[in-house]
Write a structure and sequence with these properties.
Length: 382
């Protein structure tokens, strides 16, 4: 909702009610949380986060001054045009200031402007906005959770390679919107590839390690970066398969077994038979840390919020979940049939972008569910 705020609360309230009744979510500056960024940046980010700008022009042009020497409202309008947003224009039937007359003319120009509608009061505006939004909604990038689930399934279908002694944990996030999120030409851009690797190296904890080799595989629909894909077993493994798709899907697969250096004099039997909960937690923290940096990098305005998320284990086979006991000489294997992949959530979960910044709760939740999955496997072995 873009308009002046002073003395216009009743008009903006009417617009908000109309947007909600049309089945949409209003983005309104008065509702923004306290933040370290400037009001100007917050408002322009609000425009970028939206599908449609509802531009309401009353008598006054006045607004917060901007570096472009135009009102904040006009700057929001120009930002929406630059980003190819849908724009609905409503002009109040009043006498307008000279500068506002100029702005209205530029917005509603016959060749390059927008078809505008006029209103006399807040009630009439409310009806106009509701009806217009219902007409233009099919033009928006629609939220479709069914298609989002299909994108998740596709990412899990592009499974990590089966490798001797390795169990993989794969986390996948995707958007709810059906649209291109990353320009696929960036996948062959060396600068973009380096930026992604920098994000993967700089996290706390980091997803990638500087001293390990990377293999980059771009295509027309995705970019994949593998860490030490063919490293020798005896050197130990810190395998990571990082894949991002043009539709915004992000997949991170990491090994949770076979992580220690091994030789004939240093053989840890637990590596063969156990999956350590501590290793799962460590890998998930690495994955979620990168996911947070990644989404901020490609979508700083938070247009894609919430996200859809799921988790899977590959090649569990006969392993059990548990911590090694140095005094234990052997381990009991389960004999039940384990699904491959072993999906952790039956139904993909919606998560807020804020969860990426504070992943402790979702990671703890995931580990508890993994424990329940292994208990179900044990029961099926009886």
């Amino acid at each position: 909702i873009s308009s002046i705020e002073d003395g216009y609360t009743h008009v903006r309230d009417a617009a908000e009610r109309a947007i909600e009744r049309a089945g949409c979510v209003p983005v309104r500056a008065e509702n923004f949380p306290s933040h370290r960024i400037s009001p100007r940046t917050a408002c322009l980010d609000g425009v970028l986060s939206s599908d449609c700008l509802v531009l309401i022009l009353g008598a006054q042009y006045a607004g917060s001054p901007t570096p472009m020497v135009i009102s904040a409202v006009e700057e929001e309008y120009l930002e929406a045009r630059k980003a190819h947003k849908q724009i609905l224009v409503y002009v109040e039937k009043v006498d307008h200031e000279a500068r506002q007359v100029e702005f209205i003319k530029s917005v509603s120009g016959y060749i390059t402007g927008h078809w505008r509608k006029f209103f006399s009061d807040a009630d009439e505006l409310e009806t106009l906005i509701e009806n217009d939004l219902k007409e233009v909604m099919p033009m928006f990038s629609t939220v479709n959770e069914t298609n989002a689930r299909k994108r998740l399934d596709g990412a899990f279908g592009d499974r990590p390679p089966k490798m001797d002694g390795i169990v993989w944990i794969q986390a996948v996030w995707t958007t709810l919107r059906d649209q291109e999120v990353i320009d696929p030409t960036k996948f062959i851009d060396v600068r973009f590839q380096k930026q992604i690797q920098q994000l993967a190296h700089s996290g706390e904890p980091s997803l990638f390690q500087f001293n390990l080799a990377k293999e980059i595989d771009p295509s027309a629909t995705r970019l994949r970066i593998d860490q030490i894909k063919d490293q020798d077993w005896h050197q130990g493994r810190n395998l990571v398969l990082l894949t991002m798709y043009e539709n915004g899907t992000l997949s991170i697969a990491s090994n949770i077994t076979g992580t220690k250096a091994r030789d004939s004099h240093n053989f840890d039997i637990a590596e063969m038979f156990l999956i350590s909960p501590d290793q799962i937690i460590e890998r998930l923290h690495e994955a979620w840390g990168f996911a947070n940096s990644f989404w901020y990098f490609i979508d700083e305005p938070r247009r894609h919020d919430p996200l859809l998320y799921n988790l899977a284990l590959f090649d569990v086979e006969q392993r059990r979940l548990g911590k090694p006991n140095p005094n234990q000489q052997g381990y009991t294997l389960h004999h039940g049939n384990v699904a491959n992949p072993l999906m952790i959530y039956d139904h993909s979960r919606q998560i807020a972008r804020a969860d990426l910044q504070h992943p402790e709760e979702p990671i703890t939740h995931a580990l508890k569910l993994i424990e329940m999955r292994f208990k179900d496997i044990d029961r099926s072995s009886w």
